[in-house]
Amino acid sequence: MDLAALWEEHMRAEFATRSVDETMETMVPDAYVNHVPTLTGGVGQADLREFYGRYFIPQMPPDTETVPVSRTVGATQVVDEMIFKFTHTERMEWMLPGVEPTGRRVEVALVAIVAFRDGKVAHEHIYWDQASVLVQLGLLDPAGLPVAGVESAEKVADPGRAARRLG
Predict the structure, then answer these.
(1) Are 132 and 145 in contact (CB under 8 A)?
(2) Quick one: pLDDT at residue 165?
(3) Per-residue pLDDT at 38
(4) Which of 60, 152, 137 is nearest to 105 (CA)?
(5) Sheet with 40-43, side-by-side order of all strands
(6) With contact defined as beta carbons under 8 Å apart, do 82 and 114 qualify?
(7) Residue ranges per domain, the chain?
(8) Beta strands in the chain (DSSP E)
(9) What does pLDDT average to in each consecutive run of 10 residues of the chain (167 residues)?
(10) Measuring CA to CA, which residue among 110, 119, 116, 147 is closest to residue 132?
(11) At the top level of CATH, which class does the domain 3-129 belong to?
């Protein structure tokens, strides 16, 4: 199996064709999605169809972009590191439950750990730094807190960028 190609097909259905049916066709019947920072996603076809059809695909801002950083392909899974970019012009219950659109730009490092079974997606564990997102949206004041905003994504995109000075 070409796991990278299977993952690309799944992402194309989510972000390019924006088709719930095509997305669901890439997944096993008992698949699950876990957006770790917000505990959103679903378990099984019915939950995931509702999640993708009601929350994820229709609430994706039109300028959403994923910029690849690194990919590791194993025997049964793919780990994708990317920069997820968007302007917060839509409600995004899957990422920002209860938060009205702010119109602000966000760039956040995101990691997807995707397992496969029988040539289809079995599960997705998606991680991102929610504090970085909230700082960029003006919903969290970083003063006095050990958090960063867009700088964390910029550091992932540019490993040569200077680290925060300590002490």
Answers:
(1) no
(2) 77
(3) 98
(4) 137
(5) 40-43, 27-35, 120-128, 105-117, 77-87, 65-73
(6) no
(7) 3-129
(8) 27-35, 40-43, 65-73, 77-87, 105-117, 120-128
(9) 96 97 98 98 97 97 97 98 98 97 98 98 98 98 94 93 83
(10) 147
(11) alpha beta
Determine the 3-state secondary structure of 143 from DSSP: coil
- CA distance linking residue 25 with residue 88, whole number of Å: 29
Which are the contacts of 112, defined by CB distance < 8 A and separation ≥ 6?
78, 79, 80, 82, 124, 125, 126, 127
- Match 């997820």 to its residue by tokens: 84
As given in the structure block, the two tokens for residue 155 are: 């550091």
Contact 69, 112 (CB under 8 A): no
Q: pLDDT value at position 128? A: 98
| Strand, helix or coil for residue 152 | helix
Which residues have C-beta within 8 Å of that of residue 76, sequence separation ≥ 6? 3, 115, 116, 117
Name the residue type at position 10.
H
pLDDT at position 53, please? 98
- The pLDDT score that the predictor gives to residue 73 is 98
